[in-house]
From TrEMBL:
It is found in: Membrane. Its main location: membrane. Keywords: Fatty acid biosynthesis, Fatty acid metabolism, Lipid biosynthesis, Lipid metabolism, Membrane, Transferase, Transmembrane, Transmembrane helix. GO terms for molecular function: transferase activity. It is a multi-pass membrane protein. Pfam families: ELO (PF01151). This is Very-long-chain 3-oxoacyl-CoA synthase. It comes from Eruca vesicaria subsp. sativa. The keyword Phosphoprotein does not apply. The chain crosses the membrane at residues 29-50, 71-95, 115-138, 145-164, 170-191, 203-223, 235-255.
Length: 272
């Protein structure tokens, strides 16, 4: 057990590429406002154009689409697991780190080291998640190309960029919780793609909702340290995250009530 822990800690925290990582604006991959604007603009316009083009074309058959979808989901499921473990170990194994440090960086923190490395991987993984939208469009599953989906995929990238740029204090907890939820979510998508649809879809949605509520708990903890302590880094980044969290909470409540609560009520009414 101890050797598994030390091996993981070496490869996910202490490896020189991770331990010596520095996020430098203009040098690190994807670290400019220009890059972010181009990527988000391409995502939104390509989604809009491809959706209209595909409306008049036949969908890609399931024999081609399902294996690609399965591989894409499996990659994101495994990557999410690695990010969750890597970021957790980075938080817990740092000599100066306590839980409170993971929710409140000192105001003069340098964007260096393992926690920033995992935030960068998390940021880039959100570009890989754009593949979800492409798969939905190619399969002409337009019902699933909802406002929630496109808004989430575009805005989450902006949020991750702001996390790195402002050294937002709550991001370590954000990386861990969202990656854990995405292990479950991409596990669910993977199983759907290989033809064994799990019965625990609702659990995935509930965990997504719990992560947003939990985010507000962490925000309260951070704000108390910010206003009654010596201050926390990236307060404006935290406000952006809180606003995004609130919008997702509302959209997911709506999704939940449409997909589960109404269906359950309809079933009860049919049985009565
Ligand atoms: C249970 C959910 C995760 C998914 O709900 P859905 O209604 O979209 O699920 P569903 O049952 O229709 O999905 C199964 C279908 O998705 C296909 N599928 C498989 N892998 C996929 C992938 N990587 N991206 C998109 N679709 C994929 C399967 O082949 C299957 O198709 P077929 O049916 O043809 O067999 C839900 O909680 C949810 O998040 N809904 C919002 C929609 C969304 O876009 N969510 C993801 C981004 S938001 C997010 O990620 C928030 C967060 O950060 O936590």
């Amino acid at each position: 057990m101890a050797s598994v822990y030390s091996t993981l800690t070496y490869w996910l925290v202490n490896h020189p590429n991770i331990a010596n990582f520095t996020w430098t604006e203009g040098e690190t991959l994807g670290s400019t406002v220009f890059f972010l604007s181009v990527v988000v603009s391409i995502y939104i316009s390509a989604t809009f154009i491809l959706r209209n083009v595909m409306a008049s074309l036949p969908s890609l058959g399931p024999r081609i689409l399902k294996p690609i979808t399965a591989i894409h989901s499996l990659i994101l499921c495994l990557l999410s697991l690695i990010m969750a473990v890597g970021c957790t170990l980075s938080i817990t194994s740092a000599p100066t780190t306590r839980f409170f440090h993971a929710t409140c960086f000192p105001v003069d923190i340098e964007p260096k080291g393992p926690v920033f490395f995992w935030a960068q991987v998390f940021y880039l993984s959100k570009i890989l998640e754009f593949g979800d939208t492409l798969l939905i469009i190619l399969g002409k599953s337009f019902r699933r190309l909802s406002f929630l989906h496109v808004y989430h995929h575009a805005t989450v990238l902006i949020m991750c960029f702001i996390w790195l740029r402002t050294r937002q204090s709550m991001f370590p907890v954000g990386v861990v919780t969202n990656s854990m939820v995405h292990v479950l979510m991409y596990g669910y998508y993977f199983m759907c793609a290989v033809g064994c649809r799990p019965r625990w879809k609702r659990l995935v949605t509930d965990f997504q909702l719990v992560q947003f509520v939990f985010g507000f708990g962490i925000l309260a903890l951070m704000l108390s340290q910010h206003f009654y302590g010596s201050g926390c880094s990236g307060i404006w980044g935290s406000y952006f995250t809180a606003a995004f969290n609130a919008s997702l909470l509302a959209l997911f409540f709506n999704f939940r009530s449409k997909n589960y609560v109404k269906k359950t009520t309809e079933m009860i009414n049919k049985l009565a």
